[in-house]
Amino acid sequence: MVETGKISSLQMGMAVYPVLMSTAMLFGPSIMAKQASNDLWLSPIWASLIGFLSVYIVHRLHERFPQKTIIEQSELILGKTIGKLIGFFYFWFLLQINGYIVREYADFIAIFLVNTPLSVISAVLVLVCALAVGGGIEVVVRSAQFFFPFFLIPLLLMIVLVFPDMEPQNIFPILGNGVWPSLKGSITPQGWFSEVFLISYLLPFLVDKNKGRRAGMITVGLVMITMIVVNLVIYFLMGDATSRILFPVMDTARYVSIADFFENLESGVMAIWVIGAFVKVSLFYYATVLGAAQSLNLSSYRPLVIPVGFLTVLFSFWGLPTFAAVGDLSLFVIPMSLVVFFCLVPAVLLLISTKKKSSSASKGVRSG
């Protein structure tokens, strides 16, 4: 068996939460404000529907093929040849997306480490993630569990400290231009919510399998609530200027000042992003090597960890010459690609497997 580790549904939720929230927290408010203006708090609600749908689809497939990941499921549903082709496409796509995530991380960190080459920043992150992935699913998930409080507490602390300066009237008029702007603002977050699909690589290793779907749904719900709260807090502080600020959460952290002693919480935001990026890259990394090993019928994915790590660093620069190019892709191309691979393709697999089961049942009834 490629993986023998075991995790709990709670650990799975703690690992997936930063995957969905890390990018959304840093870039999300600005991206959603550009389209939805003061209705940006509604956009996560519409976007979360994709997340709930992804959990439902992935769990239904898991119920039909309990010990299989999406790679193995596709071979059983579509046959070995087409299934392995699907596996190759998932490997290629996950590799590209992980390279893109690493580049996002490197570009952000380079704002503070101005003399450090992007290649060094990317390589260090991938190396640390490789150590976690090489240890197996238990190491990856327990690392996420350990860092979970350090991801959440600085965010909650920042919200509490800026609370007295909020101006709730900035949110009015609600739906002044109808529901369409908030729907447009949900296009990019749909991609982030669809990343909950990664539980497909975790469900086979749960010790409490009956709680898998519930944990996935709760995680999506908590991410939705967190995004709503973050969007509201930032818009209460910055109003219409939110859409013109590249990293609104960073500016919110700089806003904090208490008695000239407790101020400038940029380090807290940076810590959130570093922890979130580590968990996100590690989970995508793990899914990439596990899926590749299953497609190639290997007994272990560990020999693939270093080669895939090298390719991830390479992909973080290939086709991404500038920070502007990364930003352009993040608005539509990447989110829609995520929805296609993480929601639409699994939905098609579920539909085909359902039809096959119905056909088999019909034949059984006629023969009987």
Tell me about this structure.
With 368 residues, the chain is an all-alpha fold. The protein has a single domain (9-352), classed as Amino acid/polyamine transporter I (Up-down Bundle), CATH 1.20.1740. Helix content is 73%, strand content 1%. It is built from 14 helices and 2 strands; from the N terminus they run ααααααααααββαααα. It has a two-stranded antiparallel sheet. Helix 1 (9-36) crosses helix 6 (137-162) and helix 11 (266-295) packs across helix 12 (305-315). The longest helix has 35 residues, at 333-367. The radius of gyration is 21 Å and the shape is globular. The two termini are 38 Å apart.
- From the N-terminal CA to the C-terminal CA, the straight-line distance is 38 Å
- Which CATH architecture would you pick? Up-down Bundle
SS strand fraction: under 5%
Mean pLDDT: 89
Order of strands, main sheet, comes to 1-2
Secondary structure category:
mainly alpha
Q: What is the rounded Rg?
A: 21 Å
- Helicity level: over 70%
* CATH topology-level fold name: Amino acid/polyamine transporter I
Can you count the helices? 14
SSE run: HHHHHHHHHHEEHHHH
Counting DSSP E segments of at least 2 residues, the number of strands comes to 2
Low-confidence parts: none
> Tell me, what is the CATH class?
Mainly Alpha
